[in-house]
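Before the break, one more example. Copy the sequence into your notebook; we will annotate it together after we see the structure.
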Amino acid sequence: MVKFLDKARIRVISGHGGNGMVAWRREKYVDKGGPAGGDGGRGGDIYFVADENMSTLLDFKIKSVYKAKSGENGGIKGMHGAGAKDLYIRIPLGTLVKDTKTGNIIADFTENEQKVLIAKGGRGGRGNARFATAQKKAPQFCEPGEPGIERVLELELKLIADVGLLGMPNAGKSTFISAVSSAKPKIADYPFTTLVPNLGVVQKSDGGSYVIADIPGLIEGASDGAGLGHEFLRHVERCRFLVHIVDITAENPIENYKIINNELKKHSEHLSNLYQILVLNKIDSVQKEDLEKYLEEFRQLLGDNICLYPISAVTRDGIKELLHFIDSKVDEIPKPVFDIQIEEDSGAYNNDDSAFEINKIAKDAFVIEGGKINRLAKVTDSRNTEQVIRFQNILKGMGVFEELKKYGLKNGDTIIVGALELAYYDDEFWGEE
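Here is what the structure looks like once it is written out:
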């Protein structure tokens, strides 16, 4: 038996870009061959792919860290390093993915084989051949590869079923689903027999099929955390409609019906408004006059809106008529559409993001943070003067220095970006126009 798990937290790390190479052409009879260092290959991207054949997040409990391969380093003679293969992680259909750092929803997998880029691999560093110009014919530096992106993600599974079964513990939901499908849930004469949702595929008379979900028993206060049902109410949110099974042999069937619907309303307005088929189960265990009494009481309570079917899941009395009606409703009621706010470009942090923030930590010191700036700082060798100058020119081009002046930047002040500490002096200080 596969253990059911509907929540998991994992860490994904995309591949590091390969380093560029400093190399020179050395060929017989070729004087001053020039730079010939190749570029590094890109790091592997990480994708999530929805898989309708998966029904639990248990795999992510066993393995919680996923890392893509890094790109190869550049070589001599202008040879570029190979890019790394992308990593594809298969997840159950119906999984919602959140970024734990921002709290934003970054993907909602509602279609089989749906693919979303989760973490983009680092760009490969450029070799010294890329930096040759008419003025600088022999660059002595290259770029290190860009680091990969690391994200901590929260996965939440919401089963995608057409029909949701609801009812108090021991109402007979498991017996019903075993009678109408090939599902084999645990069945016993005590409450909370079902500890996890069960899915069953029901074959229609026209040759089609639909999925029905048996949700563990709800009790009063479930929406506030009582019992087991509150853990699984999210699994009926995506259903077309609900089949509400009431145990006719219970002490107060009508009160039990009201309790379940009250919990649905407290959980969400969407759940409380889903179409319901009311099923009175265990008619084989009551007298005919008692059954008639309850049928009349439910009709008086719900009026013309009621859709009521008396059945016995054990003897299968009334099952055929009920299934025929459910079949018609599956064809009639469309799947619900949810307007889930997904962060723009949230599938993968953009390695070229130029946004930045400035924090003044002292009278003469500033810290700069930002996606692109931090990544550039990580691949800048502070021991290489040419690389540091190039990094400063990039900051200037991005308007960082102009923005710093609004915070009071002056000559001699310290600018901190990641592990780099730079002393600022404007062009006038050096006598440049």
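The longest strand covers residues 150-157. The longest helix spans residues 253-267. Try to locate both features in your own notes.
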